[in-house]
Amino acid sequence: MKDTRVVMLSGSFEYDSHESLVILRDFLHANAAVDCELIQFESEGDEPSLAPIEEADVLLLFTRRLLTAGSELERLQQYCRDGRPIVGLRTASHGWQNWLDFDREILGGNYQGHYGGVTTTVELSQSDEPHAILQGVQAFEAHGSLYRNTPLAKDTDLLLTGNQDGHREPVAWTCERSQRAFYTSLGHQGDFWELDFLRLVRNGILWAIN
Questions:
Q1: Whole-angstrom distance between the N-terminal and C-terminal Cα of the chain?
Q2: Does domain 4-208 have CATH number 3.40.50.880?
Q3: Which pairing describes strands 34-40 and 4-11: parallel, antiparallel, or unpaired?
């Protein structure tokens, strides 16, 4: 059986997404039967070919306000219309300046900016049957500002909440529409050195491909 093919799009320069995704890639290669391909955007206006996503088993996005348009944006939108698995990290909620509705349409999110703190206490949602994505994941301290995402779409399944200076917001959830989508607003550089965060993303990838 061939390994699961994960295509990662890196284009969140504020968060050094390339360096962080290299850490994630190495973790995945050591802890899951996956083969990762990393496509790097060099700037918001860069236009690398997204052709590899056509052969992906799951697409992982760590992008921020990229100016992708034309045939390459259409390629991404076709991937989504085909109901194929999506995993989004942090700025993926506003990853495409020419498709800002991606957040609501695909992720079930509601990005409205962020608070000003620097650390977030991450807590597991209360459930009698813990979600498969939370297997092996414990509460932990995350880095970076807490995103405002309330309210989520009604068809989302909340997995993690974050507490920062008394503010509580969802920080990880799933959304099942035409495809399985997993998103977390975590993804600061420091989070990629937290094993619980890496396990969370690994589990999200494996869940997305069912």
A1: 16
A2: yes
A3: parallel
